[in-house]
Amino acid sequence: MNDNGAVRYKVAEAARLAGVSASTLRLWESQGLVVPGRSDTGHRQYSADDVARLKRISWYRVERGLNPAAIREALEGEDPSAEGEASQDSGLGRRLRSLRHAAGKTLEQVASDNGITASTLSTLERTSQGVGFKTLHDLAEYYGTTVSRLSGEESGEVPVLVRAGEWRSWPETTPGVTVQLLAEGPRMMDCHRFVLAPGAASEGAYRHEGEEFMHVLSGRLELVLDGDQFFELGPGDSLYFESRRYHSWRNRHDGETVLLWINTPPTF
């Protein structure tokens, strides 16, 4: 951070945020794609806007296959809000994009493998929104990780005590579904508080290893196991089941449904 309070990133930090190597940043600078600032000692410094531009450059290079001249032209013709949108995406979208790049896959390949459109996957990677829980789980499994890790649940400091109303939330990938963290960090359980708007649903069935426990605090929840076993849970009701069974769910209440949901081990 410089004297006026603006964040400045070193080459290695900016490269990590953009999902490329430090040598790539220097190459882009020589090609006139980005011009970082300099510290008093002459070291490169990248602003938040610079990092947003780097992400756009990477996207044009990888997804569109543009050469440096075409990338410069594309950047000059962009809506001014485009880079701002890229800089505001949450960690989940960036993690998904980094995993795809590491796997050497295109948007079309990953989308086809997971039964979604390339435009849907692109929106998810840019904004961390636009898919249901089933799709999010399928993508996590595809990359050999979990939704919890993609959502950044294991990063940062780990509070022992979480006060009421001070829960940190996952990115809201699905409209009407809010997932709040009741415990964080490496552990044997995923402990969450789900808040579901009327009609909010998993949008499909999914399964994984482990066991699950849920307890409804308010509202009503319909849970379906293996496509043919239906449970309707009301306030005070609890349910325990094996996570390897296909499960889907929906808020059948005309108001919010709030429940505690615990997975062990943390495989979702």
UniProtKB/TrEMBL annotation:
Residues 96-150 form the HTH cro/C1-type domain. GO terms for cellular component: cytosol. The keyword DNA-binding applies. Gene3D superfamilies: 1.10.1660.10, Jelly Rolls, lambda repressor-like DNA-binding domains. SMART domains: HTH_MERR, HTH_XRE. The keyword DNA-binding applies. Pfam families: Cupin_2, HTH_31, MerR_1. One of its GO terms (molecular function) is DNA-binding transcription factor activity. Coiled coil: none annotated. Residues 8-77 form the HTH merR-type domain. InterPro entries: Cro/C1-type_HTH, Cupin_2, DNA-bd_dom_put_sf, Lambda_DNA-bd_dom_sf, MerR-type_HTH_dom, RmlC-like_jellyroll, RmlC_Cupin_sf, TransReg_Diox_bact_type. Keywords: DNA-binding. PANTHER family: HTH-TYPE TRANSCRIPTIONAL REGULATOR (PTHR46797), METHYLPHOSPHONATE SYNTHASE (PTHR46797:SF1). This is MerR family transcriptional regulator.
